[in-house]
Write a structure and sequence with these properties.
Length: 236
């Protein structure tokens, strides 16, 4: 009795495969590789890491407010502020003096420049509580009633602004610059820091105003306005 034929017997295999044994071996290896891949797929899927939901951060608690006393443009104010409120936000959001602008909010553009005890500072980089009982001057406090300050008038005469967004900071910084020059303060552009600069040259003005940026590029007119004010003051 003859034994049943098996598919792998050469005599019952594909004639083409029988004629080419290398082809039969290649097909066998391909089939084995495919079977191994299919068998390993469930195990690979099972080993995939499961993502656990992140724990939501705890809600930030508001810091308790405290009274902050400031004299702003000659008027006393008592503001109820959190300790982390910047001077810029206190002026704009709590006092309503929006002339001081929020530009970069990183102390790089100078649009938020105000005067603290006569010294120019970036209001976005300091906290309001750090200036307790100090006198703060914003652009709204530079004029005397309806009379513009000499610098404000010079900015108009020399067209020292275009969009005007940086102008409040430019004016506050320029006001402090004039006072610093009167006090004999030197700058990086001063030839001899041991002696008071004889005049505010264009180089001196550009150096002393370098912390205030003007995206419109009105720098030449800003320099001209400052030079005109200093020239009038020198000539009496």
């Amino acid at each position: 009795m003859s034994k049943p034929a098996r598919p792998e017997d050469p005599e019952h295999s594909d004639p083409q495969t029988a004629a080419h044994p290398n082809l039969a071996r290649r097909r066998f290896l391909q089939s084995a590789a495919a079977a191994a891949t299919v068998g390993a797929a469930p195990r690979l899927h099972a080993k995939e890491p499961t993502m656990t939901p992140a724990t939501p951060p705890a809600a930030a608690r508001a810091a308790p407010v405290r009274p902050v006393r400031l004299t702003i443009n000659g008027r006393p104010h008592v503001l109820q502020l959190e300790p982390r409120v910047t001077l810029l936000d206190a002026l704009r959001n709590y006092v309503g003096l929006t002339g001081t602008k929020k530009g970069c909010d990183r102390g790089q553009c100078g649009a938020c420049t105000v005067l603290a005890e006569g010294r120019r500072i970036n209001a976005c980089l300091t906290l309001a509580v750090m200036h307790e009982d100090e006198s703060i001057t914003t652009v709204e406090g530079l004029a005397s009633g309806d009379t513009l300050s000499p610098l404000q008038q010079a900015f108009i005469e020399h067209d020292a602004f275009q969009c005007g967004y940086c102008t409040p900071g430019q004016l506050c910084s320029a006001t402090a610059l004039i006072d610093e020059f009167r006090a004999g303060c030197a700058s990086a552009a001063t030839a001899d820091v041991r002696t008071r600069p004889a005049e505010l040259t264009a180089a001196e003005i550009r150096e002393r105003m370098s912390g205030n940026l003007c995206r419109c590029g009105a720098y030449p007119n800003i320099v001209a306005a400052l030079a005109a004010v200093q020239r009038r003051e020198r000539n009496g």
